[in-house]
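Entry 14. Ran structure prediction on the chain below.
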Amino acid sequence: MAATAEHSHTHDAHGHDHGHDHHDHHDPGFLKKYVFSTDHKMIGVQYGVSGLLFLAFGFMLMLVMRWSIAHPGEPLPSGLSWILQLFGDDFVTRWAPDGKVSGSLYNMFGAMHGTIMVFFGVVPLGFAAFVNFVMPLQIGAPDMAFPRLNMWSYWLFFISGVFMMASFLLPTGAAQAGWTNYSPLAAVIQRNTDARFWTGQTQWLFAMVFNISASLLGSVNVLTTVINLRAKGLTWMRLPFFTWAMFVIAFLLLLAFPPLEVAALMQLSDQVFQSSFFLPTGLWTSEAGILNVSGGGHPVLFQHLFWFLAHPEVYVLLLPGIAIVAEIIPCNTRKPLWGYKSMVYAVLTLAFLSFIVWAHHMYLTGMGTVVATFFQFTTVMISVPSVILLTCLMISLWGGSIRFPVPMLFATAFLPMFGIGGLTGLPLAFSFIDLYLHDTYYVIAHFHYIVAPGVIFALFAGIYHWYPKVTGRMMGTVLGHLHFWPSLIMMNVLFAPMFIQGMAGFHRRWYDGGKVFEITAHKYFYLNEIISWGAWGLGLAQIPFIINFFLSIKAGKKVTSDNPWNATTLEWSAPTPPPHGNFLTEPVVYRGPYEYSVPGALKDYSPQWEPVTELEAAETAKVPASH
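Output, structure tokens:
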């Protein structure tokens, strides 16, 4: 056993040294290496850092909103007012007179918080960053199928981010019609200006067109890479579940995003060119009276187009988290992923069903009982593959020799947090319940339990897990614990009370937290302050992560092996950090992705790149006979 471990270590170190020699022969220069790179690993890092920055910015917007809710009519304290100063004095004078959050500023920050967190934070980090860095390594590919297209994908995303961020500086401010940007509100809210092109609502649409185009280019690239560039011996049922999930996500993006891109272009036409795709006849506003438009459009059409994308988008947010956890749990329980094939079939079923549940977001539009019944039925159905995925991950813990490095802490915390988010969503499947809870804090709590302590915890787990492969150094354990435990506590302080407020009827768009309804809602008004303290505490809990992330690049403990976690999937056979082209020799796959504690093996992990030994084959042959 010791001899085997020593041999493995020597082999890894040897590969590590050669990786640097190989890398030295390919030096494209600073701009091509770090800025306009076509290397999938650098593009993955670019997406990851950009996504983390957007998440931080979107989180800061929420902190300002929480102050307005907990302390309506009070000036922002110095600990939060600096966030508004980022946009300049003119912005503060216009939108926060006397340092107080106005209703318009709350609407603006609410719309941009949702947009930035979903489309510019979680998806770029969860899908684009991890799929770009990890997936080609996991399948033994030298790069993505279309490296230049990959570069264009990132830069279209970057341009979309510039449009979105610059919209704060316009005279109209950024978009204020919510992250869903429903018509006709979105088309008329900033209509009282001559420069209709230079409004926050218009720039929101331009940004989304570029963002969606980036996602479409990326999804085509992922699909082509997985289908055509798998290593020799890597059959479909030997793919790691991570790659399966990313493959499915790419299909979701490719099929679901075009309707929203078309809807954005149609709404853009309504705003700039006075068309009426979504504007009905006789539309009246308090500022302009009856609008002088041709009319004949249908506002609900926009909702259909938006949610046809946005419900598959929920699984675009969720599946990277499940995919990452599915890699980390077997590695740290030292046993195979339980129900691997069931998980593959479940994720394929989930993808199909995600396209026929979208209208459960639209029960308030007055749809007929037959149509509502159909969407209630499909919504309950889609919970089945979700439960299968979660159950397989939980059973994978059973009987394992579990170790708890920092990635495993976040991965195991994901399971109950995602479970709470999923189970609290089931009542919303039924229209008679949703009619009451729609747009209340109950929905906010349900969604955020899935995305915040659920998906974002899983993304943190992935960062801690693959950080040594990216940098050649480990992130600090002490700082990791200081990040995890306060985050876990504060996440629940932040979101759990929202279920109570939601069932009491608290509305998500009250910028004063319901102060105007204090006579009827006073019983749960005090929770506003508790929730806000949770939000501010959660912000402080991210400081150890920020320090750890940047400090470990230079000061982290150097890895002594290309496979520091003793994992089994193919990315851990590449030199650390992987050179241009990834592998020193063409990788060959001999076995499944999660062969831990194999009977007859000399160590407790059997990597995909190691041939099956005679002893392993003999022991495996005995298993059916013993049953």
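The first helix runs from residue 2 to 24. Will compare against last week's run tomorrow.
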